[in-house]
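Q: Sequence in, structure out?
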Amino acid sequence: MNKILELLMSDTEMLLPVIKEYINKYKPVAYGLVQEVVEVYKDYSNNTEYPAIVAKTKKNMYDAYVSVGFTEDQALALMINDNIQLMKNVKQIASSSNKNNIK
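A: Exactly. Output:
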């Protein structure tokens, strides 16, 4: 593969036609893969079990806050705060990961 790249880089006018040839050669495969991803996403979007589980988990958390003595507003505020903290942690992890990948 390195030899092919070296040859192509030595004659840059050949580079574009060769790249176009490879794109045309593998385009059906790429389209097929994309279509499969779309089909998986369709299946996922029609899934009602997972969102129901997530909703039940959130409702259980809300009910738990209320049952230990928090008001409904306080319970909602605590859940919102939990989500904000989660997003901060995700951003921090992503930022840390990006810094490590740059090195």
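The two ends are 27 Å apart (CA to CA).
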